[in-house]
Automatic annotation (TrEMBL):
CC per GO annotation: plasma membrane
Protein name per Swiss-Prot or TrEMBL: VWFA domain-containing protein
SUPFAM superfamilies assigned: vWA-like
Coiled coil: none
GO biological process, one term: cellular response to calcium ion
Organism: Aegilops tauschii subsp. strangulata
Source organism phylogeny: Eukaryota, Viridiplantae, Streptophyta, Embryophyta, Tracheophyta
InterPro entries: Copine, Copine_C, VWF_A, vWFA_dom_sf
Domain VWFA: residue ranges: 1-199
Pfam families assigned to the protein according to its UniProt record, in alphabetical order: Copine
């Protein structure tokens, strides 16, 4: 599962300084690098190579700002096939949406958790990984924590890849590797640490 940040803080995609800039020379931008680097590994653990893929933080055609929309522009099917499908849907989306905001993780995490929950209910022995690629600070930190805590009982892990040079302090808080487990607004503590945060600048 992949979720891509289309908020305005990434910069105008038509400008070379934008994190979403599509270089005519074919050189991948930061988001394309993250998609390629992570998804090419994950696809080998997915037999059918079908990935739910979403965008968030953009104004979609003939609509308002959406914090979880299908990357392939379908109204009823969120899946794309292979890394090529993710890359193609990503590029097409850039030309069809308007970057907006704010940056909310809660809706996409809840959607991924819903898929994982349905899999458990139907007795499917599957494990899910949600890749979130983002450029910065979230504005729904408590809602995101609540979503993560609720999902901590499910066969789901969340890998957050930070692109650009923003302050990723909030992302490190969500990754409980160096502190206590996350706690929800109701006082519930996460069953396990399901979040891993990686800044792209540290792995390039």
């Amino acid at each position: 599962m992949v979720a891509v940040d289309f908020t305005a803080s990434n910069g105008d995609p038509r400008v070379p300084q934008s994190l979403h800039y599509i270089d005519p020379s074919g050189r991948p931008n930061s988001y394309q690098q993250a998609i390629l680097g992570v998804s090419e590994v994950l696809q080998f653990y997915d037999n059918d190579r079908r990935f739910p893929a979403w965008g968030f933080g953009a104004k979609i055609p003939r609509g308002s700002v959406s914090h979880c929309f299908n990357l392939n522009a379908s109204t009823n099917d969120c899946e794309v096939v292979g890394v090529e499908g993710i890359m193609s849907a990503y590029s097409s989306t850039l030309y069809s949406v308007s970057l907006a905001g704010p940056t909310l993780f809660g809706p996409v995490i809840s959607k991924a958790a819903e898929i994982a929950s349905h899999s458990v209910q139907y007795g499917n022995n599957k494990y899910f990984v949600l890749l979130i690629i983002t450029d910065g600070v979230i504005t729904d930190q408590q809602e995101t924590k609540d979503s993560i805590v609720r999902a901590s009982d499910l066969p789901l892990s969340i890998l957050i890849v930070g692109v650009g040079n923003a302050d990723f302090t909030q992302m490190r808080i969500l990754d409980a590797d160096f502190g206590k487990r996350l706690e929800s607004s109701t006082g519930r503590v996460a069953t396990r640490d399901i979040v891993q945060f990686v800044p792209m600048r540290e792995v390039q």
